[in-house]
Design goal:
- It is built from 23 helices and eleven strands.
- With 536 residues, it is an alpha/beta fold.
- The strands form three sheets. It has a four-stranded parallel β-sheet with strand order 1-5-6-7. Strands 8-9-10-11 form a four-stranded parallel β-sheet.
- Helix 22 packs antiparallel against helix 23.
- The structure holds 2-acetamido-2-deoxy-beta-D-glucopyranose (6 copies) and zinc ion.
């Protein structure tokens, strides 16, 4: 092999490192820029070392250097660690070694079975205490655990429930006896039902099971394939719907959601929200802008009560099963909401099972409207949440990037799309990686094999998110941080990785740069406190 090949490899590696250091707007790096860079010296040194290396037995110094080079490329590999951080890192490394040698390694096990193991892990309790910055991908009606819905919401007066033909339930609050639903049993007033039973512990447990996918049984038997689990997912979602779209519950639910993330040391959220019409006890309803206004009011109230919480913004979402006419109308409505509520509204996205829904390309005319009209409507598209390589849906990654998406929801398939991956990196379009979601929805079994392992190793722009924690039996963000850090981060990811992930979550948010600076300053204060605390 000629020397030129090695020169090429090193230039490539260094351009990767530099574009990872300066991900936004760096563009292709020329040779001249590289040689002016502070790394040029190291490049030449490595070339010489390699030149010697190819003609004799491997040189340990060279090996050391290559290992260092790889480490410097990973997420957080460029951060200078303080003494306190290094001390904590040493502790973390020992904890990780112990955890990976234990019998059942949680990231290799389905989350439903791993949850108890994770709860017992000292790394997990550390991650719970860690200030994690922001969560940029969670859905409106999956931010509060199902137990709270049962214990708090279904105990309120006027709550009715019916059983559907296919193993689900529906709820409604109503002052009068509600109209019967087709494919559902007659309505039961829960107050009366519980009074009749005396002890409702078992009954409550049975209701809880309808509001989450979590099960004590073997998850692979209950949910043998993707279509079964997506079916159950949509049913659980519909079951929750009637509870949370009742106006007084909606407010309390969102407030409780903010509380649960705040308690998990998350300081800012970007929530994907359907903005449904909310209803009152007499059946009257409010429109979308009223729902958005309610989000804004509750966010302001919560932030006032908790000064080190930074706030939340809403990404308006609509189902990808829509037709072109209704998508066009929804996009026009989104443009109007974005104009009327610029503070709370972050942008727009499509939701629902990607494999069964319509691809972004199908909606290209509707989604190009904002650009054509010269108005702002930032996009935050789910894309690449699929195993179906080469299908129309599999093009969502490239199409999303062409439509100027600000981030990519999941991007699970990105390693199979070198052009999309390169664009995402060069444009600084971060991936929202949701490990537990991908495992539960059957894209990957063992989280050590998650595609983000490779992405983290090369410092690709990404953030860790929890998608639908309550449906997966999780809560907040720490469980997903655990899977990322211990699972696909392996022994190599360290305190720098965690720090970078937290910083990323603020830097890749929809906040303006000055807002990001304020949020980062608050985060930094809490981080410094966190790393200097005694671990044991
Ligand atoms: C339900 O939650 C609300 C709001 O957090 C709280 O005021 C109320 O006391 C709770 N009710 C029950 C029965 O837990
Ligand atoms: C209600 O039933 C559950 C189990 O079915 C039992 O554990 C619990 O102690 C009972 N509660 C009361 C107050 O009797
Ligand atoms: C998924 O599993 C269900 C239940 O076992 C089965 O009826 C269905 O055909 C399966 N679907 C696919 C796509 O394999
Ligand atoms: C359950 O029933 C509803 C209404 O009949 C139907 O639309 C839906 O597809 C069914 N879901 C499953 C998982 O069978
Ligand atoms: C499109 O969807 C809307 C709303 O779901 C529906 O009312 C309308 O009939 C659909 N139009 C066509 C052409 O299918
Ligand atoms: C994407 O951004 C480019 C450059 O700012 C602009 O020319 C183009 O119209 C945008 N496209 C869409 C669909 O927003
Ligand atoms: Zn999602």
């Amino acid at each position: 092999m000629s020397v030129c090949v090695y020169i090429y490899i090193y230039i490539y590696i260094y351009s990767s490192i530099l574009s990872c250091l300066f991900p936004v707007g760096t563009g292709p790096l020329s040779m001249a820029v590289l040689l002016q860079s502070p790394h040029a010296f190291l490049v030449i040194l490595l070339l010489l070392l390699y030149w010697v290396g190819v003609q004799s037995i491997p040189d340990p110094r060279q090996r050391e250097m290559l290992i260092k080079l790889e480490t410097s490329m990973q997420t957080g590999g460029q951060l200078q660690l303080t003494d306190a951080e290094q001390k904590l890192d040493a502790v973390l490394f020992k904890m990780k070694q112990r955890e990976s040698q234990a019998g059942a390694f949680p990231p290799a096990v389905h989350f439903f079975k791993a949850r108890e193991l994770i709860r017992a892990s000292p790394i997990f309790s550390l991650l719970q205490r860690m200030p994690k910055g922001a969560v940029l991908h969670v859905h409106d009606f999956s931010i509060v655990d199902a137990e709270w819905l049962v214990k708090n919401v279904t105990y309120r007066p006027h709550c009715y429930m019916c059983y559907t033909d296919n193993h689900s339930v529906r709820f409604i609050f109503s002052s009068l006896s509600p109209k019967p639903l087709s494919h559902c049993s007659p309505w039961i007033l829960l107050e009366n039902q519980r009074a009749k039973m005396g002890n409702s512990t078992d009954f409550d447990r049975s209701i809880t099971a309808y509001l989450t996918l979590f099960t004590e049984k073997d998850p692979d038997t209950v949910y043998p394939n993707q279509s079964v689990i997506w079916g159950a997912f949509e049913q659980a979602f519909l079951a929750v719907w009637g509870l949370v779209t009742y106006t007084p519950v909606f407010r309390d639910y969102y407030y409780q959601g903010l509380t649960q993330f705040y308690m998990d040391n998350v300081m800012y959220l970007e929530v994907r929200a359907m903005l449904p019409e909310l209803y009152e006890l007499d059946g009257s309803t409010h429109d979308r802008s009223w729902t958005l206004k309610t989000y804004q009011d509750v966010t302001v109230q919560f932030t006032k009560e908790n000064p080190d919480f930074f706030g939340a913004r809403i990404i308006f979402t609509t189902h990808r099963a829509a037709n072109i006419t209704s998508m066009t109308e929804t996009v026009m409505e989104a443009i109007k909401l974005q104009r009327d509520f610029p503070d709370i509204m972050a942008g727009f996205d499509l939701v629902g099972e990607e494999d069964k829904g319509r691809p972004l390309w199908y909606f290209r005319d509707a989604l190009s409207l904002p650009a054509e009209m010269g108005v702002t409507l930032p996009f935050f598209f789910h894309a690449g949440e699929t195993d179906l390589e080469g299908t129309e849906v599999d093009q969502n990654l490239l199409d999303g990037l062409r439509l100027n998406t600000s981030r990519i929801g999941h991007g699970f398939a990105i390693n199979r799309h070198p052009v999309a991956k390169d664009l995402s990196r060069k444009k600084g379009v971060a991936l929202e990686v949701c490990p537990i979601s991908n495992q539960v929805l059957k894209l990957v079994k063992d989280l050590q094999n998650h595609p983000a392992a490779a992405l983290m190793a090369e410092g690709h722009p990404l953030v860790i998110c929890s998608d639908d924690p309550s449906l997966f039996g999780a809560s907040g963000l720490s469980y997903d941080f655990y899977e990322a850090f211990v699972g696909f981060g392996g022994l190599r990811s360290n305190i720098g990785t965690l720090k970078q992930l937290a910083i990323n979550s603020i830097r890749f948010s929809s906040l303006t740069p000055p807002q990001q600076d304020i949020a980062l300053a608050i985060w930094q204060r809490r981080w410094d406190h966190f790393v200097s605390e005694k671990v044991f």
